[in-house]
Amino acid sequence: MHADLSRITHRPERHYSAVVAQQGRVQLDADANEQAAIQLFQARTLAADLIGQHGGPRGATGFKIEMQGGSRELDDLIISGGRYYVDGILCDATRPEPGVPVPADGSAEAGGKDGAGDDDEPAATPATWTYWDQPDGFRDPERPGDRLPTRFPYLAYLKVWERTVTAAEDPALREVALGSAMPDTAARTKVVWQVLPLPASELDLEDDSPPVDDVRAAFARWAKKAGAPASRLAARGERPDQADDEPCLVLPDARYRGPENQLYRVEVHDAGTAKDATFKWSRENGSVTFPVDALDGTWVELATLGSDDKLDLNVGDRVEFVDTAYTSRGEAEPLLRVEELDLPGRRVRLSDEPAPGVGRRPELHPFLRRWDHHESTRRTKESSRTGGLQHGALRAEEGRWLPLEDGVEVYFAAGGTYRTGDFWLIPARTATGGVEWPTDPARRPLLQAPSGIEVHYAPLAWVQGEQAAPDLRLAFRPLSAGIPAADEAALAAEAEARAEETDAAPTATEAAGPAVGRSQTTAAAEAAVDEGGAG
Fold first, then answer.
1. 253 pLDDT higher than 70
2. Through-space distance between the first and last CA atoms of the chain, rounded to whole angstroms
3. How many CB atoms lie within 10 A of CB 407?
4. d(CA 525, CA 117)
5. Which helix (H) or strand (E) holds 326?
6. C-alpha distances in angstroms, 136 versus 97, 116, 145, 192, 293?
């Protein structure tokens, strides 16, 4: 999550059930965030244990898929509204209802239920989404890779993950009463879902019309492989060779040489193996952002240039042009360099125009995200071999320690496969002169899988054409049931009294055996009546 955090302390393996505040102690953001994480972990674990890997409530199960072909238009998928759970995470496909506006003249018309006339009634809200207009899909018909496969069959599946939203992307989160110069307050975590196609060739199925259970099993194997992290990183604080030449702003023997506490974020930019993969890093967890007001070629007008010299922009900084669609698609466009600043006009000139389709739509809230790496000015054998930056990011060199700054170093394990957006967090502390990172008893840093992005998957339908697609969803019934009019003891007493009063042969239902839940006394009495009737 790109947010201004001190650190993340939630560790599920430690089995903490609550954060307990103590009187007279400092309260940190990490404490409140861990409490929220504990509750969310417990709730989602319980839901997954009861529901299974995925499923929806019977009668309100969402994400039913129907194929809609077109002779001239592109193929489409109809996505029904409702709810569905994936690994305990609630995904809601219900469209929000639009509000009813007040009439232009302010008068109440007889024809409008809420004061609006018949002509002012809003159009009915569709009960479904489509593949092309799903809220967080941002599929583009002009991109061939976004189009649905033309070869049948293929599998439609649900991809789910979470991302952080700050006031840079959702201005409604900012409390305007604090003033325009005040920073934003708390961020939000959002569940993102997308309905995407998966070619049948990816599932290694021998038949184009396999049983539904076989499709689910094949998809489970694919999802396990797709969701498993395939890269590892370690971090350490190492006293730089030139530390003796620096001013004594920190302890002379400190390994981390920075003057302030930081939360370093190392994030994969370009995906692939080490030959192609790149990474970027930030000392502020990637939280330094600048909302964009206007874009004119390489000139960008910003809402602000930063609140202080620590959170501002300078010539030479590397920035990423971001908006909601770019984030949801998980893309990796080249990072740009700040070439010129126009302080009075709140403008910056970038080294190139943003990629097509990014930052041109104000409703997607574009902004610049600052990263803190720079191209090294120190020429070494390794830097000459790698050729410096690639697309504005650093190359992910494996098998050796890579310096970031102030003694912080990272190490990529050999043989990794990297995914755009995967990240690691490294807290650096001046009090210890080092970084917080797991180590073995010999104090050697341990290789760790990425902290995120954690992606979840669920199969929805096996699309074979415009005919009905076999449904791969699962549904569950509510656990609650009706309460009987009387308890078991009263029901048993009533049955025994009826038998004594009538002194008649038992009915067919009673002859079948004692009812479930009746007492042993009642069952014995009925058995005695059966024996008497048989004699």
1. no
2. 80
3. 22
4. 72
5. helix 324-329
6. 17, 32, 17, 6, 23
CA-based radius of gyration for the chain? 31
pLDDT tens profile 217-241: 999 999 999 999 999 999 999 877 6
Could you tell me if residue 336 is left (phi over 0), alpha (psi between -120 and 50 degrees) or otherwise beta?
Answer: beta
Q: Distance from CA of residue 357 to its chain's centroid?
A: 23
pLDDT of residue 119: 56
Q: Which residue matches tokens 């650190």? A: 7
Dihedral of the alpha carbons of 31, 37, 43, 49, in degrees to the nearest 10: -130
Cα 144 to Cα 1: distance, rounded to the nearest angstrom:
30
Q: How confident is the model at residue 243 (pLDDT cuts 50, 70, 90)?
A: low
What integer is the mean pLDDT of 112-131? 67
Can you read off the two tokens belonging to residue 210? 């396999």
Q: Which residues, in sequence order, are CB contacts of 454 under 8 Å at separation 6+?
A: 161, 162, 227
**Burial annotation 20-29 (CB, 10 A radius, 16+ → b, else e):** eeeeeeeeee
**Directed axis angle between helix 488-502 and helix 520-534, to 10°?**
20
80 touches 128 (CB < 8 A)? yes
- Is residue 483 helix, strand or coil? coil
Taking the C-alpha atoms of residue 342 and residue 305, their distance in angstroms, rounded to an integer, is 10
